[in-house]
Amino acid sequence: MAVVFIALALATKRERIIQAIKRSKDEAVTNILLFAFNALIAIPLCLAPVLILEATLRSVRLVSEEAWVGVPHAVTIFLAILVIDFTAYWRHRFEHSRGMWRFHATHHADTAMHWLSVQRKHPVARLLAFFMDLTLAWFIGLPVIAIIAAGILRSWWGYFLHADVPWTLGAAGSFLMSPAAHRLHHIRDEELMGHNYGNTITLWDKLFGTYLDPAPYVNCETGIEEGTRGFLGELARPFEKRYRTSKALESTEAKTV
What are the structural domain ranges in the chain? Predict the structure, then answer.
């Protein structure tokens, strides 16, 4: 994955690559440290409870896995992407609500958007996504292989969305979330960041009224009023007094209601 996105950066930045590296290196280090902390500490601590919960709730599934036997893999993977994106859409909107923004603010703090920005997540936010995003797909019994395949595709797309490229994807951008559309979600203007919550497709944003055409905002400034922090600063961010109220919270929360 690193090879692909470093190659993309070299191809698009060319003579500006050194300047781009200097601008994003400190935030990239923070993002890598947050990724390592979440992957090696936060998520492993929750694996046992998740497995116990899954075994306990298996009998209350709305649909059994056997119901999908015979359905082509391409269809179940497509459905998994739709369902997981639906759940992640509402989880993402929830993160912009009062009480949760303090944990999600970390993800919006990068002032130099780059592919590693997708990993800039506070452990609480990472665990929320870990518990919520696959829940509906699991309850309707979608095959594990379809959920895994959808997860891999969505993961790659998530890195692509955060890449520093001004691409709207043209006609495909009407149904696929583009890097430009997601950059708009990270815009420094807090009146506008309550748009384009989707990870892979634009369907749910369009259906629920939160989609905004990114074309007028290509290469917009990103970040939040409180600024970016280092690794320890981002871990501590949610517990600061200032996050009891937040201009960013108020503006994005209006889009959630």
Answer: 25-256
**201 forms bridges with which residues in the sheet?**
176
- pLDDT tens per residue, range 88-113: 999 999 999 988 999 999 999 999 99
SS3 43: helix
Nearest-angstrom CA–CA distance, 149 and 217: 32
Scored b (16 or more CB within 10 A) or e, 90-121 reads bbbbbbbeeebbbbbbbbbbbbbbbbbbbbbb
* pLDDT tens digits, one per residue of 150-159: 999 999 999 9
Q: Are 178 and 170 in contact (CB under 8 A)?
A: no
Non-local (6+) Cβ contacts of 252 within 8 A are 96, 101, 190, 193, 194
Coil vs helix vs strand at 143: coil
- Record the tokens describing residue 104, joined without a space: 């999600």
